[in-house]
Write a structure and sequence with these properties.
The chain is built from five helices and seven strands, in the order βαβααβββββαα. The longest helix is centred in the middle third of the chain and has 13 residues, at about 70-85. Helix content is about 25%, strand content about 25%. It has helices spanning about 15-25, 70-85, 90-100, 155, 170; strands spanning about 5-10, 30, 105-110, 115-120, 125-130, 135-140, 145. A hairpin with a 4-residue loop joins β5 and β6 (about 135-140). It is globular, with a radius of gyration of 18 Å. By secondary structure, it is of the alpha/beta class.
Length: about 170
């Protein structure tokens, strides 16, 4: 796997959106998801709604514009609404998978967990991943690494600083 690649770690809605737009812009993309389905919290495994900006703002207030996601997230939501009027969580999983599979520049790696990263200076040079079901181990060389894991797994493996729990009020006022 070559140096002209973008690795997106995490196949939740942010990871899927990132991978799709990058692939459509001509980058070679590897989307690495540690679960058997895409969508993260919005998948059939957890079944949360895809909200984003809609969860905040002027919802239902007279003469106000309601916030909405745009771009890839809106495209996905519209496609899911049209193709999945019964709101089946499994059908939504399938639609997300089809979207990714339809992109020739996107390689999808399901059931594949990030387990390490090699660093030179302050830069990631490669990520290590494993697929427990097949006992395969992958070295993924890329030019750009994006952590969309939700728990910062790639950042942790790369040695980034992190926090456990919430910051104290006195820390940021």
């Amino acid at each position: 796997m070559g140096r002209g690649i973008l690795l997106v770690a995490g196949g939740g809605m942010s990871g899927v959106a990132c991978a799709l737009i990058a692939a459509r812009k001509g980058l070679k993309v590897i989307l690495c998801q540690d679960r058997p389905v895409l969508g993260g919290n919005a998948s059939s495994e957890i079944r949360m709604h895809i909200l984003g900006a809609e969860a905040h703002g002027n919802r239902g207030k007279e003469l106000s514009v309601e916030p909405r996601e745009g771009g890839i997230i809106e495209e996905l939501r519209l496609d899911i609404s049209v193709r999945n009027p019964q709101r089946s969580a499994s059908m939504q999983d399938l639609i997300l998978m089809e979207k990714c599979m339809a992109e020739p520049n996107l390689q999808l790696m399901l059931n594949t967990s990030i387990i390490g990263a090699d660093i030179e200076g302050r830069c990631i040079t490669c990520a290590w991943a494993t697929r427990e079901s097949t006992e395969d181990r992958f070295r993924i060389n890329a030019r750009i690494f994006v952590d969309c894991t939700g728990d910062g797994r790639l950042a942790l493996e790369a040695g980034a600083s992190y926090r456990t729990g919430r910051e104290a009020r006195t820390e940021y006022n």
